[in-house]
Amino acid sequence: METALHIAKDADELAADGAEYFLRSAKESVRTRNRFTAAISGGSSPRGMHRLLAREPFLSEMPWSQTHLFWVDERLLPYDHPESNFGTAREDFLSRIPIPEANLSPMPVDLGPADGAGAYRRRLADFFGPLSLPKFDLIVLGLGPDGHTASLFPGSSPGSSGEAPWVIAVHGGNPNVARLTLNYNVLNSARNVGVLVSGSGKADMVRRIYTREPPMLPAHYVEPTSGSLTWLLDRAAASLLPERGGHDNG
Ligand code: 6PG
Predict the structure, then answer these.
(1) What is the pTM of this model?
(2) Kind of pairing, strands 138-141 and 228-234?
(3) How many CA atoms are closer than 13 Å to the CA of 214, on its beta-carbon side?
(4) Which fold has domain 2-248?
(5) 62: Cβ below 6 Å to ligand 1?
(6) What is the pLDDT of residues 62-101, one digit of tens each?
(7) Where exactly are the structural domains of the chain?
(8) What sections of 102-234 are H helices per DSSP?
(9) What is the DSSP letter of 156?
């Protein structure tokens, strides 16, 4: 696994650097495979980056018609609920970009947990092919203060990789509601995984995950099998990392 660390000055610079990273990944994917497939997260961390994607220069430079967006996780709440990841993304950028509706694959929220997970698995199988794990060009994750990522909470751990279900239903988080989430095997099949974290409240957890300090928490298991892992942090989130010399881009 190739790992990179990028440290921005503050949350605003992190949003801009995140949008650059997203654009670079999109251009590279379109150049080599003629399409860009990405799965995006909810939570507060990616919102600045999402908003910038709907503004210049990203608005014009992004290959929107070749971009296919999926979701890392979703709360089983209506899309117009303030905690809906799809609804929030729609408000932050989807409603202002020229992406074809058919290129958006939100997680279903009205089928119940088990059927919803099955339906999203079928959506992934239809799009990527049913035989091997979906290989996203980019998955953008956040990190919870308890070490969760996506909606994979402490207590969960990877099943036997390829055979584990691609999408699972869980209960937890804040608000504590039923959720759907991509499983570890799908996260780890991606070509690129970016973990975007901001703020001093996450600094200790960033340090624990980055330095692989036990006990094992969900984010420890994010190790792309043949892809790259990029940490996108602001200085506050990176402040407890042991060796920062030469890495600080902010
Ligand atoms: C979600 C997420 C979740 C999130 C972390 C960090 O929908 O909430 O996908 O995994 O990335 O909880 O959340 P913040 O960015 O709000 O700190």
Answers:
(1) 0.96
(2) unpaired
(3) 1
(4) Rossmann fold (3.40.50)
(5) no
(6) 999 999 999 999 999 999 999 999 999 999 999 999 999 9
(7) 2-248
(8) 113-128, 184-189, 203-210
(9) B
